[in-house]
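Query structure, 152 tokens:
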């Protein structure tokens, strides 16, 4: 199965993933160490395991990243993910709430977000959705609301 992360205007960043399960939170996918990925400018394999949660009902995709130098929970704020023939696809809206293993929480990539708006890659309506979703997800990370607690 594939997970397509569309970045405007860069294109399709594609990850090989496996279906773990579907439950009330959404669809859980896994990409294990060594799983291939490719992007318009590069390709490679993941250096660590990743667990992904997404749903066609939310403006986010959650990534539990098992990076030994910075284990973290990253949220890609996005347009609502869609099922496609080979897996899932979502359009990234640049803002990324992140909770690091040490408990620090931040929203990353404000500069990329601002640049995308300026260039017209993110509409005014999408920007409003992105900002509100980022703020909501930052609060969920802080409060450790299930499934954004320590277990995932």
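Result returned for the query:
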């Amino acid at each position: 199965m594939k997970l397509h992360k569309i970045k405007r205007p860069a294109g399709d960043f594609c990850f090989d993933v496996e279906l773990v399960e579907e439950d009330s939170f959404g669809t859980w996918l896994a990409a294990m160490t060594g799983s291939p990925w490719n992007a318009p400018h590069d390709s490679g394999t993941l250096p660590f395991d990743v667990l992904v949660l997404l749903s066609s009902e939310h403006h986010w995709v959650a990534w539990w990243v098992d990076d030994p130098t910075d284990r973290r929970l990253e949220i890609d704020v996005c347009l609502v993910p869609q099922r496609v023939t080979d897996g899932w696809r979502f359009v990234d809206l640049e803002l990324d709430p992140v909770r690091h293993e040490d408990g620090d929480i931040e929203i990353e990539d404000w500069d990329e977000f601002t640049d995308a708006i300026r260039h017209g890659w993110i509409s005014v309506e999408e920007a409003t959705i992105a900002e509100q979703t980022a703020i909501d997800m930052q609060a969920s990370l802080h409060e450790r609301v299930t499934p954004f607690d320590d277990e995932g």
